[in-house]
Amino acid sequence: MSDRAVSVVRAGALTTVQDRGRPGHAHLGVPRSGALDAPAAALVNRLVGNSPDAAVLETTLGGCALRPRSDVTVAVGGAPCRITVDGRPVAWGAPVRVRAGTLLDIGPAVSGVRTYVALAGGIIVEPVLGSRSTDLLSGLGPAPLTDGTVLPLGRERVPHARVDVAPQPAPPAELVLRVTLGPRDDWFTPDALRTFTSGTFLVSSASNRIGLRTEGPALERARSGELASEGMVLGAVQVPPAGRPVVFLADHPTTGGYPVIGVVRAGDLAAAAQAVPGTPVRFVAVRRR
Fold first, then answer.
1. Residue 37, Cα to own-chain centre: how many angstroms?
2. What is the mean pLDDT of residues 89-102?
3. Measured in whole angstroms, how far is the alpha carbon of residue 223 from the centre of its chain?
4. Mean pLDDT along residues 103-124
5. Is 209 helix (H, G, I), strand (E, B) or coil?
6. Spatial distance between the Cα atoms of 14 and 27, rounded to a whole number of angstroms
């Protein structure tokens, strides 16, 4: 293998390869996948001189540790964390030159959930349906990283950004999600709709890349029975029989049979990716565009 590669020394709780995903295959039952916090992934790519669609690493809560086989420029963003190279602290949110054979340690998230690691040249694992993203629901793309995995890198082609630090939004203390009601809001009682759009829920620890699950008041249905399965979209808020809303994220199923009470604006989903368990969640109804 080329020396343009990086070895995984510590994979962490869940570290996956992600890019901008594989949209356009829902009719085949394939989710779009891709980085949950897309702006954070795009920023770290820009900091190291990669194209926006280059593959990065997405870590979940616990970080990871890497050892490059050749000198490489790295940038880490998304959830803030401590970063060291052979034990020496280096900058978060800025390009850092890491020498071959040294240990790059991305620590646990100090706040937020998902940290993004871009390496100059991008991670060039084999694409599936045009994307290198790991999809936890369908199993497409590379498996989540394990200790000892070796990831090939592309060639550095563009100089990295010349910045001391790139501003990034803080993880939300309260998650406010703008939602367009429907298409199945008529399956819920008027009281349930008022609770949904004026009450407060909490992010559940059962949340994952498939969906942000909530805890809080149960939403009562006005209709009994079940729907036939129908298409699901990114940001759909599905309400299972227990009555607690689930916001579908990048690895969501493409069909489902529980009623969708509303759909969250795409621009709010990056914040959802960084909301730690216990974060208050409010759904704010907005008009259809």
1. 5
2. 96
3. 34
4. 98
5. coil
6. 28
Outline where the chain has alpha helix (H): 38-48, 190-198, 269-273
Cβ atoms of 93 and 168 within 8 Å: the answer is yes
User: In whole angstroms, how far apart are CA 101 and each of 45, 68, 95, 115, 118?
Assistant: 22, 6, 18, 23, 18
SS3 195: helix
The residue assigned the tokens 């390496």 is: 119
Q: Is 267's pLDDT higher than 70? A: yes
Write the pLDDT tens digit of every residue in 36-57: 999 999 999 999 999 999 999 9
222 pLDDT above the threshold of 90? yes
pTM over 0.90: yes
Tell me how far apart the alpha carbons of residues 99 and 287 are, in angstroms, rounded to a whole number.
52
* Integer Cα distance of 100 and 69 in angstroms: 5
d(CA 275, CA 271): 6
From CA 75, how far away is CA 5, in angstroms rounded?
A: 16
- Quick one: three-class SS letters along 142-187? CCCCCCCCEEEECCCCCCCCCCCCCCCCCCCCCEEEEEEECCCHHH
Residues 134-155 have pLDDT tens digits of 999 999 999 999 999 999 999 9
Which residues, 6+ apart, have CB-to-CB distance to 269 below 8 Å? 36, 234, 235, 247, 249
CA distance 218 to 190: 13
Count of residues for the chain? 289
Q: Is 172 exposed, middle or buried (0-12, 13-18, 19+ CB in 10 A)?
A: buried
pLDDT at res. 289: 62
CA distances from residue 166 to 64, 67, 92, 95, 267 in whole angstroms, order as listed: 21, 24, 9, 9, 20
